[in-house]
Amino acid sequence: MQLATVYPQGSLTKYQIAEAEAISPGYVQQLTMALRLAGLVVSVRGREGGFKLARAPQDITVADVLRAVEGDIMPAPCRVPGHCNRADTCPTRPIWDRAAALLEELFTSTTIADLAPGSCSA
Question: What is the rounded CA–CA span in Å between residue 41 and residue 29?
């Protein structure tokens, strides 16, 4: 969310992000690497370097971020094909499928601009 607040003109170092989010700089590095590989964040070299969003905050969904960092969005591992030999007969499977659909809708309809007060919407 911190990167959305400085978009489009600014970048933040991993230390600035870590302090603002109360997480370690090492964890920020891991997250930004995954986000960079997904094309959501770019690194900026030099004295004013750090990280910045690759595109506008309103064009990046929560689903984009979660997929980059966590992989597929699913509330139960039994939804992975072949993971459970009871999947076809499981009485709880329909509720997990419904939960997954609701989460997918929520995460794809919410952008990081929606979550970042004071972000620029250029």
Answer: 12
